[in-house]
Amino acid sequence: MASTVDASSRQGFKLSQLIYDTRYRSLTIQAIAMALLVLFLSWLVSNTVQNLSDLGKDFDFGFLGQRAGYDINQTLIPYTSGSSHARAAIVGILNTLLVAFLGCILATIVGVIAGVLRLSKNWLVARLMTVYVEGFRNVPLLLWIIAIFAMMTEATPQPRDFREGGTASMWLWDSVAVSNRGVYIPAPVWGPGSTALIIVFVLSIAAIIGFRRYAFRRQEATGVLLPILPVSLALFFLPSILAYFVLGGPVSLAYPELGGFNFQGGLHMRNSLIALWLALSLYTGAFIAEIVRGGILSVAKGQSEAAFALGLRPSRTMNLVILPQAMRVIIPPLISQYLNLTKNSSLAIAVGYMDARSTLGGITINQTGRELEGMLLLGLFYLVLSLIISGAMNVFNARMKLKER
Amino acid sequence: MSDTHAQTARFVRESMLPEREPPLAEVGAVKWVRENLFSGWLNILLTVVSAVVIGWILLHIVPWFWNSVWKAGSLSQCREIRDEAFGPGASSACFAVITDRWHQLVFGFYPQTLYWRPVTALIVFLIAASPVLFPRLPRQALWFSAISPFIMFWLLWGGSVWAPLSVLLGIVLAYVAFRIASRFVSPVLAMLAGVAVAVLCWGLLAGPLTTDMSRILPIRLRAVGSDDFGGFMLSFIIGVSAIILSLPLGILLALGRQSDLFFINKVSVAFIELIRGVPLIVWLFTASLLLNYFLPPGTNFDLMLRVIIMVTLFSAAYIAEVVRGGLAALPKGQYEGADSLGLDYWQSMRLIILPQALKISIPGIVNTFIGLFKDTTLVVFIGLLDPIGLSNAIRASTDWNGVYFELFVFIGLMFFICCFSMSRYSIALEKKLQREHR
C-alpha cells in the first residue's frame, strides 16, 4: 500500500507543483531568494575586489599596528601621538563609552523627573514639562548639540575674566569654573591609604545589599519590617567617614586655579564633552519622560485604589504596587533609548569630540586610506555594542514577563 | 415627622435661607489657582520653582526678541543699529540674517530665477498628499497622487520631460502586463512578468524613446544639478522620498521577519539588526566613502540619491520593527480566521492582518518618520548643504561671522513646525481609527 502511494506520488510529481503546490512552493521561493542573494553578494564582492586591485590597495588590518601620529585631546588611557592606530581606536571607543555612560545617567534623572512632573496636578509645572518634552523631541539633536556648544563657547566668560576685579566668578565656593575653554571641577587626589578607604566603601555597599536581602527574607518569613532606609544610609556614610578620619584624610581635592592665561589643576571637562553630554541627555531625557509617563499611566487606576483600600500608605502603594507594574512597561523602551543615545553619541563629529568615529572612523582612515577596513571595524564596534545591550534587554524581558499559564 | 421633631429637637428652622454666593476662594480663577497651583506645600514649592525658571528664561529671551533687528546688511550693521536704538551692549537678536539669507536657507544654491519650480513642486506635493492624508476628499484624486512624483521630479531637476515620462511608461506597461498575465498564471508569476516588462522597458525602450521624443517634441526645463540643492528644500526632498519609499519596504521586512520561510526570516532578521545596530552617520559615511567600492568600476552616481537610498534602508529597518510589534500584538484568532476563510497569504495579509496591524503601529511609524526627518540634518557631515550646513556657510561669510542663535532659532522653528504637525496628525488619526473602548 505504502509503496503504491509512494510510486504514484513520484510519478505524479510535475514541475508545476513547484509553483502551485503549497508544500513545495515555499522551498521554491526560498531557493530563488537564496540564489538571488548569493548572486548579489558575489557581485558586490567581485566588484570590491576589482575596485581594490584597480586602486592598488589590498585588504589588510596591518595598519592598526602602525604609529598613529596624531594627538587626541581627551584620553582616558595613556596615549601619545607615537602610539598605534589600534590604541587610538581604543581611546576613541572609551570616549564614546564615557559620554554614553554619563549621558544615560543624566538622561534617566532628567527623564524620570520630567515624566513624573508632567503628570503633576500643578498646572504650571506640567505645562513647563510639556514645553520641554515637545521642544526637544521635535527639533533635531544635531541642532541642540551645536546650539549648546555655541552657548558654551560664546556665552561663557573667558578665563581672564576670572581675575581679580573681573566680571566672572567661580561657582560653589570657588571650586567650579565655567569658562569658554571648558568647565573646570575639583579633581580628587588619591594619597597613600586611599586604597583602604575604597575597600571600606565597597565593603559598606556590600553590607547594604546583604542587609536589604536579609530584611526582605525576614519580612517574607515573619512579616516583621526592619528599618531598611535608616540602616542603609548609616551603612553608606558612617564606615567611610570614620575610615576617612582614621586614615588621616587620604583623599583630597585639587581645586582649579587661574594661572597664566588658563586654569591650572582640577579636572578639565572640555566644551565638546559638556555640549555633547548635555544635549544627548536633554534630548534623550525628553523621550524617557514620555516613556515614564506612559508607563505610569498604563497601570490601571483600580490598582492604586485597591492598594489604598488595603490600607497601604501612598509611598508603599507606589513602591509595591504601581512601580513594579510600571517598570515592566518602562524598562524595554528605556533600554532602547540608552541604545539610541549611545549611537547618537557618534554626532560628536559636530563638536570635535574625539569618539570612536573621529579616531578610528575619521583621522585613522584619512591618514592610512583604509576606508573599507576602518568603516568595517567601526560598524562592528557599534553592532557588537548594540547586540550586547539588546541581548541584555531580552534576558531582562524574559525574566520580567508576566508568567501566564 | 416635623411634629415629632418639634417636640424633641431644641431648634427647628421654619423658613428657607436664601441662597448665598459661594465663598470667594471657591469660585472662578481664585479656586482654580488654589487647586492647581497652591494646594499643598509641595505644590507651592513646585509653582515657585517653575515660576522662577520661567521668569529667568523670559528675562533672557524677551529683550533679545523685543530688541531684534530685522533690516541690516551685516552683523556689524546690526550692532550699529542696536547701539543707536537701545544703547551699546543691549541684548538684541539680529534676525536680519534671516531676511538677508532666507532664500539660501530655504533653497540652497538653486538658481534664483527658477525658485518658482520648487515652490510649484511643494504645491503639487501638498495637493498630492491631501487625498492620502484626508480620506474625505474624493478618491479619484489619488490618481494625481500616483503621478505626482514624476511631476515633482521634473520640476525640481528639470531636463527633458520625456525622461520621467518614459519611467512612468515602464510602470504603466508593467501594470498592464501584470493584469493580463494574472488571468492566465498565478499572481506570483504575473508579478514576475510585470517586473520583467518594466525592466525591459527601462533597459531597451527608455533611452531611445527619451532622445527621439526630445528631438521631435522638445519640452524641457533648464536642468539643475543635485549640487545646487540645499536648505530646507534638500531636507524636505530627502525626508519625503525616504518616508514614502521606506514604508512599503519596512512592511515587507516585517512580514519577512514574521515569515515561516526559514531563509527569508533569517535574511530579514540579519538585515534589520545590521542596520539598526549601527548609527546613521556610519551608514552615511559608508554611502559616501565606500559605495564606489561595491559598484562596478567606473560607476559614480549622485550623492543625494545615495543618501536617499541609505536613509530609506535605515528607516525601513526601524519601521519593520514597529510593524512587527503590530503584527505580534494581533490576536492569533485573526490569522486563523483569515486562513479559515480560504484566503491565501497575500490576501489575508492585505485584507485582514495588515489593516489592523498598521493601525496599531501608527504612533510608532509616525515617530520613525519624525526621527527620519530630523535625521536628514546629518547629511551635513558628508558635504550636502542642509539648513545646518548652510548656517555654517552663512557664518563663514565676513558679513555674518558670529551669528549663532538667530539661525538656530529659525532652523529649529522650521523643524519644530514640521515634526509637531506630523505628531498631531498621528494622534488625530489614531483617535479616528480607534474602534474599541470608545
From TrEMBL, chain A:
<feature type="transmembrane region" description="Helical">
    <location>
        <begin position="189"/>
        <end position="211"/>
    </location>
</feature>
<dbReference type="InterPro" id="IPR043429">
    <property type="entry name" value="ArtM/GltK/GlnP/TcyL/YhdX-like"/>
</dbReference>
<keyword id="KW-1133">Transmembrane helix</keyword>
<feature type="transmembrane region" description="Helical">
    <location>
        <begin position="27"/>
        <end position="45"/>
    </location>
</feature>
<keyword id="KW-1003">Cell membrane</keyword>
<keyword id="KW-0029">Amino-acid transport</keyword>
<comment type="similarity">
    <text>Belongs to the binding-protein-dependent transport system permease family. HisMQ subfamily.</text>
</comment>
<dbReference type="GO" id="GO:0043190">
    <property type="term" value="C:ATP-binding cassette (ABC) transporter complex"/>
</dbReference>
<dbReference type="InterPro" id="IPR010065">
    <property type="entry name" value="AA_ABC_transptr_permease_3TM"/>
</dbReference>
<dbReference type="Pfam" id="PF00528">
    <property type="entry name" value="BPD_transp_1"/>
</dbReference>
<keyword id="KW-0813">Transport</keyword>
<feature type="transmembrane region" description="Helical">
    <location>
        <begin position="375"/>
        <end position="396"/>
    </location>
</feature>
<feature type="transmembrane region" description="Helical">
    <location>
        <begin position="274"/>
        <end position="296"/>
    </location>
</feature>
<feature type="domain" description="ABC transmembrane type-1">
    <location>
        <begin position="93"/>
        <end position="393"/>
    </location>
</feature>
<keyword id="KW-0812">Transmembrane</keyword>
<dbReference type="GO" id="GO:0006865">
    <property type="term" value="P:amino acid transport"/>
</dbReference>
<keyword id="KW-0472">Membrane</keyword>
<feature type="transmembrane region" description="Helical">
    <location>
        <begin position="223"/>
        <end position="247"/>
    </location>
</feature>
<dbReference type="GO" id="GO:0022857">
    <property type="term" value="F:transmembrane transporter activity"/>
</dbReference>
<protein>
    <submittedName>
        <fullName>ABC transporter permease subunit</fullName>
    </submittedName>
</protein>
<feature type="transmembrane region" description="Helical">
    <location>
        <begin position="129"/>
        <end position="152"/>
    </location>
</feature>
<feature type="transmembrane region" description="Helical">
    <location>
        <begin position="88"/>
        <end position="117"/>
    </location>
</feature>
Automatic annotation (TrEMBL), chain B:
<feature type="transmembrane region" description="Helical">
    <location>
        <begin position="404"/>
        <end position="425"/>
    </location>
</feature>
<dbReference type="GO" id="GO:0006865">
    <property type="term" value="P:amino acid transport"/>
</dbReference>
<dbReference type="InterPro" id="IPR000515">
    <property type="entry name" value="MetI-like"/>
</dbReference>
<dbReference type="GO" id="GO:0043190">
    <property type="term" value="C:ATP-binding cassette (ABC) transporter complex"/>
</dbReference>
<feature type="transmembrane region" description="Helical">
    <location>
        <begin position="188"/>
        <end position="209"/>
    </location>
</feature>
<feature type="transmembrane region" description="Helical">
    <location>
        <begin position="41"/>
        <end position="66"/>
    </location>
</feature>
<dbReference type="GO" id="GO:0022857">
    <property type="term" value="F:transmembrane transporter activity"/>
</dbReference>
<keyword id="KW-1133">Transmembrane helix</keyword>
<feature type="transmembrane region" description="Helical">
    <location>
        <begin position="163"/>
        <end position="181"/>
    </location>
</feature>
<protein>
    <submittedName>
        <fullName>Amino acid ABC transporter permease</fullName>
    </submittedName>
</protein>
<dbReference type="InterPro" id="IPR035906">
    <property type="entry name" value="MetI-like_sf"/>
</dbReference>
<feature type="transmembrane region" description="Helical">
    <location>
        <begin position="267"/>
        <end position="291"/>
    </location>
</feature>
<feature type="transmembrane region" description="Helical">
    <location>
        <begin position="229"/>
        <end position="255"/>
    </location>
</feature>
<keyword id="KW-0472">Membrane</keyword>
<feature type="domain" description="ABC transmembrane type-1">
    <location>
        <begin position="232"/>
        <end position="426"/>
    </location>
</feature>
<feature type="transmembrane region" description="Helical">
    <location>
        <begin position="303"/>
        <end position="323"/>
    </location>
</feature>
<dbReference type="InterPro" id="IPR010065">
    <property type="entry name" value="AA_ABC_transptr_permease_3TM"/>
</dbReference>
<keyword id="KW-1003">Cell membrane</keyword>
<dbReference type="Pfam" id="PF00528">
    <property type="entry name" value="BPD_transp_1"/>
</dbReference>
<keyword id="KW-0813">Transport</keyword>
<feature type="transmembrane region" description="Helical">
    <location>
        <begin position="360"/>
        <end position="384"/>
    </location>
</feature>
<keyword id="KW-0812">Transmembrane</keyword>
